[in-house]
Amino acid sequence: MIASNPTAGKFGITTRLFRLVGGMPKDQQLILLRQLVGDKVSNYLYKLLKFFLPNRPQPITFAAKIVWSTARDFGVKFDKASVLQNDVLKSFVKQKE
């Protein structure tokens, strides 16, 4: 049984569960999510992606939804990217072509 935290009030067990799941390795989190929602995992994954691009001192952050995934890879759809974010990402992709 999970002991609740009296300082967390009525959400103590939920808070503890989030901490336990958050402390799991990402691959185990994905396995757990698949067990809960089946093969439609990508419908439930929406993240803020933050990453560094070469020759750019500051990280860039995008709101994105995972639109497809396999055991080793995934594809994302960027949501509501600003003009600056679009320009930075397009410039990076163009350099790699």
Task: Give average pLDDT, whole number.
Answer: 76
- Record field, number of beta strands: 3
Main beta sheet: 3 strands, antiparallel
Coarse shape: elongated
Secondary structure elements and pairings:
Elements: H1 12-22, H2 26-37, E1 46-51, E2 60-69, E3 74-79, H3 83-96
Antiparallel strand pairs: 1-2, 2-3
Task: Give a structural overview.
The protein has three helices and three strands, in the order H-H-E-E-E-H. With 97 residues, it is α+β, with helices and mostly antiparallel strands. The chain has two domains: 1-38, no CATH class; 39-97, no CATH class. A three-stranded antiparallel beta sheet has the order 1-2-3, with no helix packed on it. A hairpin with an 8-residue loop joins strand 1 and strand 2 (60-69). The mean pLDDT is 76.
Features:
2 domains, alpha+beta, elongated, 3 helices
Provide a concise account of the structure shown.
This protein is an alpha+beta fold.
